[in-house]
Design a protein that fits this description.
It comes from Streptomyces hoynatensis. GO terms for molecular function: DNA-binding transcription factor activity. This is WYL domain-containing protein. Keywords: Transcription, Transcription regulation. The protein folds into four domains: about 60 residues, Arc Repressor Mutant, subunit A (Orthogonal Bundle); about 55 residues, no CATH class; about 80 residues, SH3 type barrels (Roll); about 90 residues. The chain is built from 13 helices and eleven strands. The strands form three sheets. The chain has a five-stranded antiparallel sheet with strand order 7-6-5-4-8. It has a three-stranded antiparallel sheet with strand order 1-3-2. A three-stranded antiparallel sheet has the order 10-9-11. A hairpin with a 5-residue loop joins β2 and β3. The protein is elongated and about 90 Å long.
Length: about 325
């Protein structure tokens, strides 16, 4: 208990430079007298803790003293925060830095805690890609990742959906791994706003040598906004249908969850059979057919007419099967 408290005190002083006895006591949840005794114990153990007297005084570490944990270099420290996704680190070419960081961290732990990495790895594993969808590891990902880590500009040739290639001068801000696919958030050089590029579509990349001036950027917030916009943009068609109570419960399991919840919030009043009419946004009528067919008798399509006829034809064929 006391050993852990002493380590925490050293780390607090290392991070905050100077702290009063009252501040340390509050952080460590002990009395100021205990703080004084702990400081004495650290000094006797060779940790150079110095007490500044008078107004504005407090305790500090002398001579820029650092614990062994801070032996991590920048690449190791950055990799350490991604150590829970080893496959992503390997894909970005950061596996060696992550291993060095873990070894240094293990060396800084108390002996009874040095099995913590193996213990955690044996209890938690992250498998990001979806089922039946092998993850992609674009061959140019390490070069793109280097540019992201070092704030270096990219000259890239990018393949559009139609197969044409375009040249782009980019300032790469961040990488996103979504369901096994890698995306780059980057700003066109000299342009405004950030855009998303699928890394697998880069045909060529050249990493520049002079870093660009990186501005403050919320990668997680940017991606959440763009992902929501992308999902909404996919839903280009509308289907009107009656749903039974069972159908309303099933809807979110057979189609886009956000679209289903939006449709259910706007459901009309119950008819004489207990059904409610909803308007559902879908990617296409073909997708709607394949998804909503799973609702069976719990749904009745009313519009568009072409989709209703497809369901009617499917119902006739099914009836023929069962006599």
């Amino acid at each position: 208990m006391r050993a852990a408290r002493l380590i925490k005190m050293v780390l607090l002083l290392q991070n905050r430079r100077t702290m009063t006895a009252a501040e340390l006591a509050a952080e460590l949840e002990v009395s100021e007298r205990t703080v004084s005794r702990d400081v004495l114990a650290l000094s006797e153990a060779g940790i150079p803790v110095y007490a500044d007297r008078g107004r504005g005084g407090g305790y500090r570490l002398v001579g820029g003293y650092r614990t062994r944990l801070t032996g991590l270099d920048r690449s190791e420290a950055e990799a350490l925060f991604l150590s829970g996704v080893p496959a992503a680190l390997r894909a970005m070419g950061r596996a060696d830095a992550a291993l060095a960081a873990r070894l240094k961290l293990s060396a800084a732990l108390l002996p009874e805690l040095r099995d913590a990495p193996e213990s955690a790895a044996g209890r938690f594993h992250l498998d990001a890609p979806g089922w039946w969808q092998p993850p992609e590891t674009p061959p140019l990902l390490p070069a793109v990742a280097e540019a992201v880590w070092e704030d270096l500009p990219l000259t890239a040739h990018y393949r559009r959906r139609d197969g044409t290639r375009v040249a782009r001068e980019l300032e790469p801000y961040g990488l996103i791994l979504k369901a096994g696919a890698w995306y780059l958030a980057a700003r066109p050089r000299g342009g405004a706003g950030h855009r998303v590029y699928r890394v697998a579509r880069f045909a060529e990349v050249t990493v520049g040598e002079v870093p660009f001036a990186r501005e403050e950027f919320d990668l997680a917030g940017f991606w959440a906004e763009r992902a929501a916009e992308f999902a909404r943009a996919l839903l280009r068609e509308e289907v009107e249908l009656w749903l039974t109570e069972a159908g309303r419960g099933m809807l979110r399991h057979v189609t886009d969850r956000a679209a289903a919840e939006e449709a259910l919030r706007g459901a009309g009043p119950r008819d004489a059979r207990g059904r409610r009419r909803v308007t559902l946004r879908v990617e296409s009528l073909d997708v709607a057919y394949s998804q909503l067919l799973a609702l069976g008798p719990e749904a009745e399509i009313t519009a568009p007419a072409a989709l209703r006829e497809r369901f009617a034809a499917a119902a006739r064929r099914m009836a023929a099967h069962y006599g």
